[in-house]
Design a protein that fits this description.
Largest sheet: none
Shape: rod-shaped
Number of strands: 0
């Protein structure tokens, strides 16, 4: 189930004009909010793209342009993944040994 969010914000009339319409600002706020929700892991990239009316690829490009990670991959996660790879690459203890050539 989705929540509909609405808020009112009183800003001076001089903020917006023909070069900077309110609609442009509102879209920028929406894009910023969606990017924050994606990088916080609160929205999937596909759902976020739908909220913005763009493709998933366009959203990924948007995140890249803003230097925002789609996934927060920590140093600890990398170390754990490397340990897993080493474990998987090691032969099992009961594996037959290849004969040595003499």
């Amino acid at each position: 189930m989705a929540h509909t969010l609405r808020f009112e914000w009183d800003v001076p009339e001089t903020v917006f004009d023909e070069q900077f319409p309110a609609e442009t600002f509102l879209m920028a706020v929406k894009v910023d909010a969606v990017c924050k929700l994606v990088t916080a892991g609160r929205l999937s990239s596909g759902y976020a793209a739908g909220l913005l009316g763009i493709t998933r690829r366009a959203l990924l490009d948007l995140l890249r342009e803003r230097n925002l990670p789609l996934v927060d991959y920590t140093a600890d996660a990398l170390a754990q993944d490397l340990q897993t790879l080493q474990t998987l690459a090691a032969p099992p203890d009961d594996a037959p040994q290849a004969p040595h050539a003499s």
